[in-house]
Amino acid sequence: MSTSFPVMREAAMDPNHPLARAFASFTEAAGSLERTYGQLQAQVAQLRQELEVTNRDLAKSVEENRRIRERLRRILEGLPCGVLVMESGAGVSIMNPEAVRLIGAQAEHADALPPDLAPVLERARTSGEECELLLNRSDGKTGASGRWIAARHAWLDQEQATSVFILRDISDAKKLEEEREQMRRQQALVEMSALLAHEIRNPLGSLELFAGLLAEAELDQEPERWVGHVQAGLRTLSATVNNVLHLHNPPPAERSEMDVGELLDWGYEFLLPLAKQAGVQLQVINALHGVRISADRHRLEQVLLNLALNGLRFMAGGGWLSIMGSEGALGEVEIAVRDTGPGIAKEVLPRIFDAGFSTRPGSSGLGLAVCRKIMEQHGGTITAESRAGYGAIFRLRFGNERGRA
Fold this sequence. Notes:
Blueprint: H1 4-13, H2 18-78, E1 82-87, E2 91-95, H3 97-103, H4 118-127, E3 131-135, E4 147-157, E5 162-169, H5 171-216, H6 221-248, E6 256-259, H7 260-278, E7 280-286, E8 291-295, H8 297-313, E9 319-327, E10 333-339, H9 367-377, E11 381-386, E12 392-398, E13 402-404
Parallel strand pairs: 7-9
Antiparallel strand pairs: 1-2, 1-5, 3-4, 4-5, 6-8, 8-13, 9-10, 10-12, 11-12
């Protein structure tokens, strides 16, 4: 050790000494390394700061994307139309709830779609037009007629062959279109029926006049019976013509004071030939003589005739028809028409006053509808009571002001 200290002293005193130069180089390198390390620390701190800012921006962007996706999902779920996204070769990738409702089931693959829907989607894709389809379903939710769907196509990514289909439920529009067409046909039928009824009414009036003259002539018993049958048939035909005219183009009621008892007396005389022809016993119980109401006599005659004919037609094998007029405790007027026919089934009873409804083949279904319309014109009501197999009762009630003669 005594020999090393002189060497070190010599190196320290001589800057050109190799050891001194090596130490100086080491000191310089250490200083450079320290400065580089400091710079590196500064750069690392700066990079860390930039990374934190980037991470915050990225987290914010991810959160914003999540909110956007959630918003789009809610919008997609809330759309009133169906949205169906299909990837080429991968089937259905997106189907919103409305599309599920329209199609009927969640489909994850193209071949899982209803078989009659796929060709329509393909036609919409190739034509670029909205295509319609009557989609029949087997879940019983749309009834026998199914559901009408319109499909329109748009490219979401044409390069990737990603398609989006917009599905609309057009069942209501189709139903409305069908109803308009039905109303148009019905209106044409109404106009034709009214025209025919007017054309028939004039010669029918002449036939009734001539039949009345023959009935007043002194004929043998057999011809007189034939004339009675002719009059009964003409009255039936006249009632049918009046039903057509009064239902579709009802004239205003020409109301005046009338005796209800006289109306029932007329009913007995007018209906008796019809009852005899049908082999039905006719009975009129009249407690309304002198009871007066404000009404259109001819329209009420039509009501009585319609109710009586309705009963007679359902008693082809004979029976009993009763017309009873009474006055209630509060002074209201009631006319009840009762028959011993087959009665009216419970399930169809609420519909018997609907125009065009009838349970008898070949009937126009207008008689009872006309009766209700006439009673409404007079501020009155008409109701029906029946049980299948026990006949039927129709009650006419008048609520207008009236008095006793």
